[in-house]
Amino acid sequence: MATVSPSEPWSYVLELPRDPRAVATARTTVRSVLHAHHLAPLADTATLLASELLTNAYLHTAGPFSLHLRGLDRERVRVTVRDSSRFVPAPFRARAAAGHLAEAGRGLALVRAYARDWGAEPAPRGTHGKALWFELVTGHTIPRSRYITPVGCADCVSLENARRAAAAAPVPDPQRLTLATVAIRSHFRNTHILPQRVPTP
Fold first, then answer.
1. For residue 8, which phi and psi values (nearest 5 degrees)?
2. pLDDT value, residue 34
3. How many angstroms separate the CA atoms of 61 and 65, rounded?
4. Which of 62, 72, 131, 133 falls 20 to 30 Å from 11 in CA-CA distance?
5. What Cα–Cα distance (Å) separates residue 178 from each residue in 30, 120, 181, 190?
6. For residue 97, which of 65, 144, 130 has the smallest C-alpha distance?
7. pLDDT of residue 37
């Protein structure tokens, strides 16, 4: 369920089930919201970084999660992913405000490389989980010349078909579906996102 605040600064909340299709739905939401609020230059970067946080929430937590988008001003947006786990991955763990949050985690290199700022917050008192967030500002985005477009990528198509087949199996196999999701994520990140794959002119 999505909620929208029409006031300034604007904000959106998208509640997501623990379903592999939820990440794609969230990516579409991020792009649509930023275009609607005249922040289209941030859409590519925001979608990629949000996908990283959302995929981690799906793979490493046992419950539902949520996406929060907030316009800070005409040039900045904050993207937050809330989930039910207290584990905080790097680089967020170094900035966690509460000492009881996890001390170790898996690095999210894309956030560190391209976000203007990022952080972690514990869930409100009496509840479980955490919030990971990052901020983007116009002009601080991924240079298009430094990554390979996924448009027309045969490997992307093949991996997505494998994921869909796992999701549609008559007898669900959670491990097979998780492995297929991880394979897509790894390919997309290593081939289409990480910098220096294409020499900058």
1. -95, 135
2. 94
3. 9
4. 62
5. 23, 25, 5, 18
6. 130
7. 92
Question: How far is residue 24's CA from residue 47's CA, in Å, rounded to a whole number?
Answer: 10
Mean pLDDT of the chain: 77
Q: Running DSSP on this structure, what letter comes out for residue 186?
A: H
The residue written with tokens 């998780």 in the block is: 178
Burial code of 88-122, b = ≥16 C-beta within 10 A, e = fewer?
A: bbbbbbeebeeeebbeebeebebbeebbbebbbbb
- Where residue 141 falls among pLDDT bands split at 50, 70, 90? low
**Residues 148 and 191: beta-carbon distance below 8 Å:** yes
What tens digit of pLDDT does each residue of 90-119 get? 667 655 544 433 333 333 677 877 888 888
Q: Is residue 49 pLDDT above 80, yes or no? A: yes
Quick check: pTM over 0.70?
no
